[in-house]
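Homework-ish question, so no full write-ups if that breaks the rules, but can someone show me the predicted structure for this set?
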Amino acid sequence: MSVQEYKLIFTGTMGAGKTTAITAISEIAPVSTDVQRSEAGDDTKVTTTAALDYGEVTLPRGDMLRLYGTPGQARFDFMWKILSDGALGVVLLVDNRRPDPLADLREYLTAFRDVVAGSRAVVGVGRCDTHPVPELDAYYDVAAEMGLSAPIVSVDVRRREDVLLLLDILFNQIEAAEA
Amino acid sequence: MSKHPECQAHLDALRCEHREVAGTLLSTMDGFEVAASVGAQISPKKMAAMTSSLLALAEAVSRESSVGQCRDLVIESSAGIVLMMDVPSTAHRSVLTVLCTDVGVLGRIRWAARNAREAIAQALDAQPVS
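A: Not a homework solution, just the prediction itself:
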């Protein structure tokens, strides 16, 4: 069988760790489009992704994953649409430190509804160790209210094995849906 | 109300002095509008975000190709040109976007836009964005 290439999307709010996740697993030096933030934020993040992040991972069978990270802020939502075109699946990252992470989840589930409804999404919730509330059950409830379901796990995207676990779960989802 | 009246004046002047210039916009590198002189059919907020993405991507391509720092980006379309220029203000690095409806005058408009860019950079260094 010939080697396949797949496109995956990492999305979620600013600071959720999209760039970090791609950097953690990419085999090439990731392409980054970080720019200096001009707005006064309530955190210490000084740069933000304006267009995309890009990285590559080879799977054991030789297939290649092309990883695209979206910008986090809604003003860049046109990039979400451009980048989602032709994507096999989506990794949605949520930051539990944020003021209303469940609202963040709602926003991104809405934006990526088709992909999620097609069982091609996984949700990773970050910083649950320092910010245990809301719990993962609350995330499942939000998805259920929207008539959607997706695996939701607690992750630390700085850890390569955590990011690979997210991809494993995503691929299991996709295979189960296609079976 | 513009966030920077002096920059607003430079944008208005560029648009008024050249009939081919259909709109001008000054925005931050991370996609926020600072000042704009555009028609009602264009959303400065959306354009600000889009120019930020384009410039950031053009910069990544410049890096990848080892051709130095990206300064200008030109989109040549069937009925006009969009010119995006890096504004080298040390205090507020930003982007000047010029919409031009005549493909044949790119050289002249680019020259005018470069002068405007220098003036805007000085204005931004002298007076911060409020």
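Now go work out the reasoning yourself. Hint: The longest strand of chain A covers residues 47-58.
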